[in-house]
Design brief:
The complex is a heterodimer of chains A (about 300) and B (about 675). Chain A is α+β, with helices and mostly antiparallel strands and about 300 residues long. Chain A has helices at about 30-35, 40-55, 75-85, 105-110, 120-135, 155-160, 195-205, 215-225, 235-240, 250, 255-265, 280, 285-300, and strands spanning about 20-25, 60-65, 90-95, 140, 145, 170-175, 185-190, 210-215, 265-270, 275. In chain A, helix 3 (about 75-85) packs parallel to helix 5 (about 120-135) and helix 8 (about 215-225) packs antiparallel against helix 13. Chain A starts with 20 loop residues before the first strand and ends in a 10-residue tail after the last helix. Chain B is an alpha+beta fold and about 675 residues long. Chain B has 5 domains: about 65-240, Rossmann fold (3-Layer(aba) Sandwich), CATH 3.40.50; about 255-340, Translation factors (Elongation Factor Tu (Ef-tu), domain 3); about 355-425, Alpha-Beta Plaits, CATH 3.30.70; about 435-550, Alpha-Beta Plaits (2-Layer Sandwich), CATH 3.30.70.240; about 550-665, Elongation factor 4, C-terminal domain (Alpha-Beta Plaits), CATH 3.30.70. Chain B is built from 16 helices and 33 strands. In chain B, strand 10 and strand 11 (about 295) form a beta hairpin. Classes of the chains: A alpha+beta (about 300), B alpha+beta (about 675). The interface between A and B is large, with 45 and 26 residues. Chain A: This is Radical S-adenosyl methionine domain-containing protein 1, mitochondrial. Chain A: It comes from Puma concolor (Mountain lion).
Chain lengths: ~300, ~675
């Protein structure tokens, strides 16, 4: 559990400014929890969830993982169904990615655990999102579902390429450092190691390790890749804030490869902007492999801007 | 051990197992095993030992023809040919007996690994017996009958052979094959049973085999131990007593057989010759019957075993000749040399090297092209029997189609490329030269002949334009312990072979002769045979011409689009199994796409096999928050770059790797 509620929190008022609370039980199956190396049980999780809802009604999110080794579709859907009985208005579904260096990765490599089956995972995802849709949730992003408007505005900033400051060891940020006189958006990373970070902050007043200015094309690429993760996609207005010279039509309107995707029903390009269809969202990363080169091409061929700087 | 120091190192390696000119490089002290990049250290030796001017020329005229014997040693692999040769050299004082002449042969790594007999150099030995001095010319032959042509040319310079048979193993496939070559050349065969010192030796049994299979009385067998030297002198005496001197005429105009040639980077081509008629010496102008080019002789001599220059070489003698030739193709095996303005009837049996097996060779990456090109050039300098054509594949880029004398030839070549030149190659499935007899007047005009050889499947003429298709066939000899006979016969039948003969060579072993389509054995027949017989069966084959065959061109399609790189020519009966195998391999190596892929193997419009690659239903990063974004963007952009390089068949992306997996030879050695 990423957060333990209950007697650790002296009073609700101290947490009044908390925007939302994310609980990551990750699974409601005791065996799976063991597999994942979690120290809590399913009933612990549900109990905590109930407590959290009491303290922060309407602002509690729950994570569930799919595609675990040896996981079967049926039982997992039942977990999800069960969760619907306890959850608040926000759920995240995450497919497991095995990261090198984790215990799970080693176990799968050794053969102690079977490798997750991507087919089964795909099925779980499709069924899961359909289930949530029926239960009144809006899938507003690849992995995030909300009802009654309980979107995570925090995360929305990422996908809409808003500005955000990352503070803390290893934190990422994206913003224009206007205070320092800059006018280009930068990608910043803070020093990774906590001890070093604290030392630097004490000595220099900040823990920023790296700053990379983002070129206009790079920024557009991020807008495209992040924006398409959401259900609304990229509206024409949104796009225009970043690409004053090129409209979505200019970039994607006449490409035969993009047309093929539109015809296949994976992508939509209309007065509402560019977005994925229900099916397309699930295979977004493949679509991006067609869209990104197309964007690059259009960018390089664009009409020179009348005296505007990059 | 031949303590030859003789010819220079040509580009570091002069040991080609397959015939075309090898001089065994040796020194007077045992050498460390040559490693890659060794050439430079041996250059110094060249200068010291090959400078002919330092040696006195010997007079070869003193050997009258009756005192000359030309013979060869033939045997199955590892039966003791080289050891026997060592002993003969010691006995005749050619090499010093006190030096520890172990069999520290200058073997190439590949030869050691495969246990192939190293082609030692031809040597002239002087031997005194019963008051006379004899000149015994030991002419060596390659160990494997992939090179039967080379063997036959070497044998044509002889009047007799020593047929060495292991006292425990007995007659093996190459014993038989080599015997028949000698028999066809009408040579006198002296059977020598070797390794009698070993515990499991059973010379009597082998004698009976020899009598049965070769019809040679057992009392003619000489039982020896080459390792210990037991009875070896008896062999020399038998050579003198039983093998006739050559029937030659010193007074006739020169007629010399080239039975071997090597390229030396300092001295040019050195040809091993056997004189059938006449005399040759420095200054003579000679002509090659094959190329018709004229060359002036710089040097002649004998091999003793070092190069020993002579004033002249006479009819009936064997030695070497250097005549300013620049390329081994100017002195091809089997060629006849004669004096300018005195043409003679060329010696029979000359053939231009005929490749039996073709393989595509491509660099792993196009950036390696030049490296591979130079490696192939260097290896083929000393091997005129490898045919080289430039070729290109849509999938694999620019490369070559090489022709080899056989599968072993090809495998050794490939291994040498990797080991000596550090060249990694993609070797595509070997193909054989099919033929077609054309019926279409237009095509006959285009090709300028009626019968064409098809090397590249893309050239396959369609049925309506052809009278018949032909495939090369070979006569294979298998010797196996009786308990595996059934399995062996099944294997042969599965390879479309027709049995020609079956006899018991003793109580335990059977010899089978089958006519095989060459195509059926080039890929993994030998391995399958070995594996089903626990390694006991032996196999050899010889060219047996062509036979009519029902060949078809098989296409591979992806979602209805033909993949040009994967067109193959197959026999009608095998089309389904080969088609299925290719479809399966493709299915495993094609990455999934946004739509389903139908893989099909087809002959004309008829689909004979299919597999499907399902579309993927999910391909999107689950979590994409602050810290993930940079990493994800990098990954996406890299993937997009990679995609650009992919070959597209229709709208299906096919990575190069997928082609390689389908096209390369499947045997993992």
């Amino acid at each position: 559990m990423s957060l333990k509620v209950g007697h650790l929190f002296p009073s609700a008022s101290e947490l009044a400014s908390v925007l939302y609370l994310a609980l990551s039980p990750q699974s409601l199956d005791d065996k799976e929890l063991q597999l994942l190396g979690r120290t809590h049980s399913a009933s612990d999780a549900l109990q905590t969830l109930a407590e959290a809802r009491r303290l922060f009604p309407g602002r509690v999110s729950v994570d569930l993982m799919l595609g675990l080794p040896a996981q079967k579709s049926g039982p997992w859907l039942r977990q999800l169904q069960e969760l619907l009985g306890y959850c608040d208005d926000h759920i995240s579904l995450y497919q497991l990615t095995l990261e090198r260096g984790t215990a799970l990765f080693t176990q799968v490599q050794r053969g102690t655990l079977p490798a997750p089956d991507p087919e089964v995972a795909a099925e779980m995802y499709q069924e899961g999102r359909a289930l949530l849709r029926e239960a009144g949730f809006r899938q507003y992003e690849v992995s995030n579902f909300a009802r009654n408007g309980a979107l995570s505005t925090h995360n929305w900033t990422y996908w809409q390429c808003g500005q955000y400051l990352g503070v803390g060891p290893g934190a990422h940020g994206r913003f224009v450092p206007q205070g320092a006189g800059g006018n280009t958006r930068e990608a910043r990373i803070q020093t990774l190691e906590p001890d070093n970070w604290m030392k630097e902050v004490t000595l220099f007043g900040h823990g920023t390790r790296k700053r990379v200015p983002l070129g206009e094309l790079e920024l557009l690429e991020e807008v495209l890749a992040m924006g398409l993760r959401t259900d609304v996609g990229i509206t024409h207005q949104h796009w225009q804030r970043f690409a004053s010279q090129l409209s979505l039509w200019d970039v994607f309107g006449s490409s035969p490869e993009v047309k093929a995707l539109l015809v296949q029903g994976l992508l939509l390009l209309d007065h509402g902007g560019l977005r994925c269809s229900w099916e397309g969202l699930a295979v977004l990363d493949s679509l991006l492999l067609t869209l990104l080169p197309r964007l690059q091409e259009a960018w390089l061929q664009r009409a020179p801007s009348p005296g505007q700087g990059g | 051990m031949w303590t030859l120091v003789g010819r220079g190192w040509s580009h570091g390696r002069a040991l080609a197992v397959w015939a075309a000119g090898t001089a065994q490089r040796g020194r007077l002290e045992p050498l460390p095993t040559p490693t890659r990049g060794a050439p430079a250290e041996f250059r110094a030796w060249d200068r010291l030992y090959t400078s002919a001017e330092r040696k006195e020329k010997i007079d070869m005229s003193r050997f009258s023809v009756e005192n000359i014997r030309n013979f060869s040693i033939i045997a199955h692999v590892d039966h003791g040919k080289s050891t026997l040769a060592d002993r003969l050299l010691e006995l005749t004082g050619t090499i010093d007996k006190t030096k520890n002449n172990k069999q520290v042969l200058d073997k190439l790594q590949v030869e050691r690994e495969r246990g192939i007999t190293v082609k030692a150099q031809t040597a002239s030995l002087f031997y005194n017996w019963e008051g006379k001095q004899y000149l015994l010319n030991l002419i060596d032959t390659p160990g494997h009958v992939d090179f039967s042509y080379e063997v036959s040319r070497s044998l044509s310079a002889c009047q007799g052979v020593l047929l060495v048979v292991d006292a425990n193993e007995g007659i093996q496939a190459q014993t038989v094959a080599n015997f028949f070559l000698a028999f066809e050349a009408q040579l006198l065969v002296i059977p020598v049973i070797n390794k009698i010192d070993l515990k499991n030796a059973d010379p009597e049994r082998v004698e009976k085999q020899i009598e049965k299979v070769f019809d040679i009385p057992s009392d003619e067998c000489i039982k020896i131990s080459a390792k210990l030297g037991t009875n070896v002198e008896r062999v020399l005496q038998a050579v003198i007593e039983r093998i006739p001197p050559p029937k030659v005429h010193r007074k006739n105009p020169l007629r010399a057989l080239v039975f071997d040639s090597t390229f030396d980077q300092y001295r040019g081509v050195i040809a091993n010759v056997a004189l059938f008629d006449g005399v040759v010496s420095k200054g003579d102008k000679i002509v090659s019957a094959h190329t018709k080019k004229i060359h002036e002789v710089n040097e002649v001599g004998v091999l003793n075993p070092n190069e020993q220059p002579a004033h002249k070489l006479y009819a009936g003698q064997v030695g070497y000749l250097i005549a300013g030739m620049k390329d081994v193709t100017e002195a091809q095996i089997g060629d006849t040399l004669y004096l300018h303005k005195q043409p003679v009837e060329p010696l029979p049996g000359f053939k231009s090297a005929k490749p039996m097996v073709f393989a595509g060779m491509y660099p792993i990456d196009q950036s390696e092209y030049n490296n591979l090109k130079s490696a192939i050039e260097k290896l083929t300098i000393n091997d005129s029997s490898v045919t080289v054509h430039r070729d290109s594949s849509l999938a694999l880029g620019a490369g070559w189609r090489l022709g080899f004398l056989g599968l072993l030839h090809m495998e050794v070549f490939n291994q040498r490329l990797e080991q000596e030149y550090n060249a990694s190659v993609i070797l595509t499935t070997p193909t054989v030269p099919y033929k077609a007899v054309l019926s279409s007047a237009k095509l006959i005009k285009d090709y300028r002949e009626k019968e064409i050889t098809i090397i590249n499947p893309a050239q396959f003429p369609e049925k309506s334009k052809v009278t018949e298709y032909l495939e090369p066939v070979v006569l294979g000899t298998i010797i196996t312990p009786d308990e595996y006979t059934g399995k062996v016969m099944m294997l042969c039948q599965a390879r479309r072979a027709v049995q020609k003969n079956m006899i018991f060579i003793d109580q335990n072993r059977v010899m089978l002769k089958y006519l095989f389509p060459l195509n059926e054995i080039v890929v993994d027949f030998y391995d399958s045979l070995k594996s089903l017989s626990s390694g006991y069966a032996s196999f050899d084959y010889e060219d047996a011409g062509y036979q009519t065959a029902e060949l078809v061109k098989m296409d591979i399609l992806l979602n209805g689009n033909i993949v040009e790189e994967l067109v193959t020519i197959v026999h009608k009966d095998k089309a389904h199994s080969i088609g299925k195998a290719i479809c399966e391999r493709l299915k495993d190596s094609l990455p999934r796409q946004l739509f389903e892929i139908a893989i099909q193997a087809a002959i004309g419009s008829k689909i004979i096999a299919r597999e499907t690659v399902k579309a993927y239903r999910k391909n999107v990063l689950a979590k994409c928050y602050g810290g993930d974004i940079t990493r994800k963007m990098k990954l996406l952009k890299r993937q997009a770059e990679g995609k650009k390089k992919l070959r597209k068949v229709g709208n299906i992306e096919v990575p190069r790797d997928a082609f390689i997996k389908v096209l390369k030879t499947q045997s993992d050695k």
